[in-house]
């Protein structure tokens, strides 16, 4: 069994430790710590394992988050206003059939710590 702890950012010490574990003695350390997903597993061998998956990018800037939220709110407002003011087309659109989500192949995660 496993549980996802979620996305976490590292402290400077953890960032240096992770960079040296992944890249070795001559690892380069970035200015912005990468975001990582942490998974805790429980099984028979090993009993408990801690896995870390790098997300490949740093946390989004607050301006990007604010722009995305504003875009979603504007879109929702105009959709609601078009229905109220009669801008909506008289013809109802056909319901779109839901497609099955694409499942990516499993990615092996090397275990970092084991108890």
Radius of gyration, whole Å: 22 Å
Outline type = extended
Low-confidence stretches: none
Q: Whole-Å distance between the termini? A: 15 Å
- Can you list the strand order of the major beta sheet? 1-2-3-4
Strand fraction: 15-25%
Largest sheet report: 4 strands, antiparallel
Main structural class: alpha+beta
Oligomeric form: single chain
Q: Percent range for helical residues? A: 25-40%
Please work out how many helical segments DSSP would assign: 2
**Strand and helix order:** EHEEHE
Q: How would you concisely characterize the structure shown here?
A:
By secondary structure, the protein is α+β, with helices and mostly antiparallel strands. The protein has helices at residues 12-23, 62-85; strands at residues 2-9, 35-42, 48-54, 111-114. Helices cover 31% and strands 23% of the residues.
């Amino acid at each position: 069994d496993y549980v996802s702890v979620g996305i976490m950012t590292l402290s400077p010490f953890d960032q240096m430790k992770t960079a040296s574990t992944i890249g070795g003695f001559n690892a380069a350390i970035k200015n912005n710590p990468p975001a990582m997903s942490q998974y805790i597993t429980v099984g028979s061998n090993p009993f408990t394992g801690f896995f870390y998956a790098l997300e490949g990018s740093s946390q989004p800037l607050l301006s990007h988050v604010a722009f995305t939220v504003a875009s979603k709110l504007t879109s929702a407002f105009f959709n609601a206003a078009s229905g109220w003011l009669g801008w909506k087309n008289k013809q109802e659109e056909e319901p779109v059939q839901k497609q099955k989500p694409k499942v990516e192949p499993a990615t092996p995660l090397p275990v970092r710590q084991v108890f």
